[in-house]
């Protein structure tokens, strides 16, 4: 067993090749064995977002603060996320997530196994077109 004190968690700016806008990520749980679980905290500035990506294993996202968006393949517009919401990300589903234009977005991402495969960034035009009506 392992305890990770909040004081030991530090955030770094997320990779600009995988995120658009101001995004910070903190690794909370590191993988202890091959294909093991890991957890991160992400903080998105207003309008910031991930690129399209796919997980090869299951992931759970828990919204801590602010308002966010998630869009997956097949949806016409993004779904709005609020504190307390959970997302069960199934393997193989292309998706992106990020903040609404006028609020920050903070979430935990717990990956049970697998890897993340990154794809194209979400353009500003595509982001704006996906906003819920």
Characteristic terms for this protein:
single chain, 133 residues, mainly beta, Jelly Rolls, six-stranded antiparallel sheet, 1 helix
CATH topology: Jelly Rolls
Q: Give the H and E element order.
A: EEEEEEEEEEEEEH
Q: Which regions have little confidence, pLDDT < 50, spanning 5+ residues?
A: none
The shape, in one word, is globular
* Rg for CA atoms: 14 Å
Largest sheet: 6 strands, antiparallel
Number of individual domains: 1
Report the CATH architecture. Answer: Sandwich
CATH superfamily: Jelly Rolls
Count of distinct strands? 13
Q: What strand line-up does the widest sheet have?
A: 1-3-4-12-7-10
Strand content: 35-45%
State mean pLDDT (0 to 100 scale): 96
For the termini, the CA-CA separation is: 46 Å
What structural class results from the helix and strand content?
Answer: mainly beta
């Amino acid at each position: 067993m392992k305890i990770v004190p909040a004081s030991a968690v530090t955030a770094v700016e997320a990779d600009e090749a995988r995120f658009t806008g101001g995004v910070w990520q903190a690794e909370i749980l590191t993988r202890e064995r091959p294909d093991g679980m890991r957890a991160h905290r992400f903080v998105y500035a207003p309008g910031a977002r991930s690129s399209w990506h796919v997980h090869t294993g299951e992931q759970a996202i828990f919204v801590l603060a602010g308002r966010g968006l998630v869009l997956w393949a097949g949806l016409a517009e993004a779904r709005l996320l609020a504190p307390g919401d959970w997302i069960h990300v199934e393997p193989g589903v292309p998706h992106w997530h990020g903040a609404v234009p006028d609020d920050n977005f903070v979430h935990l991402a717990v990956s049970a196994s697998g890897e993340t495969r990154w794809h194209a960034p979400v353009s500003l035009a595509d982001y704006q077109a996906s906003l819920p009506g």
